[in-house]
Amino acid sequence: MIAAVVLAAGASTRFGSPKQRLLLEPVLERVRASSVDDVVVVLGAHEVETDARTVQCADWERGPGASLRCGLAALGAEVDAAVVVLGDGPDLDPRAIDRVIAAWRRAHAPLLAATYGGVRLHPLLLARTAWVDIPDAGLRDLPAEPVECDDLSPPGDVDSADDINRR
User: Fold this and answer.
1) Helix count and strand count (H, E) for the chain
2) Domain boundaries, the chain
3) Whether the Cβ atoms of residue 79 and residue 36 lie closer than 8 Å to each other
4) How does pLDDT run across 139-151, given as a tens digit for each residue?
5) Going along 65-139, which residue ranges are E strands?
6) What are the φ and ψ backbone dihedral angles of 151, each rounded to 5 degrees?
7) Tell me, what's the pLDDT at 71?
8) In the prediction, which pLDDT does 18 show?
């Protein structure tokens, strides 16, 4: 079983308001259009209305790794791997999720990451065997098997209201 962990715990200080309230549902629509079997959203700084299963991460301020650990802890024993998605990447292509899952099923690497033009972005896939010792800073500096998604749109990263206007 493959689950998605959507990280949406941040304070949105650069955005000026809880961007999760604007961006989470479009991201969830894209995640649900993929082949994942389950979805959990990690919240922290802000409450957000959603029909998805949520987990509140008290340690969200420690960094994305802390939020990821909260999300992984909410997954059942039947989950073999987790696809990690950012709640502020509204252009995520569901095919990138499916491509990363397919690559994992072939190679069974502990960590895989979608790449766009050689740049490592999201989604990431983390096999259950790699769910230990996740640093507070997250997975960015850990080695990952690249999964080319050059023909797909990158997921985007909305940090400010201007980022939405540029889309």
Assistant:
1) 4, 7
2) 2-165
3) no
4) 888 999 999 999 9
5) 81-86, 111-116, 119-127
6) -85, 0
7) 97
8) 56
163 is written with which tokens? 């980022």
Neighbours of 24 (CB within 10 A): 23
Distance (Å) of CA 143 to CA 38, 92, 110? 26, 22, 9
Q: What is the pLDDT of residue 23?
A: 77
CATH number of the structural domain 2-165? 3.90.550.10
Pairing of strands 81-86, 119-127: antiparallel
How do residues 48-73 score in pLDDT, each as one tens digit? 889 999 999 999 889 899 999 999 99
Residue with tokens 């940090």: 159
Token code pair at residue 69: 């650990």
DSSP strand E in 99-153: where?
Answer: 111-116, 119-127, 145-148
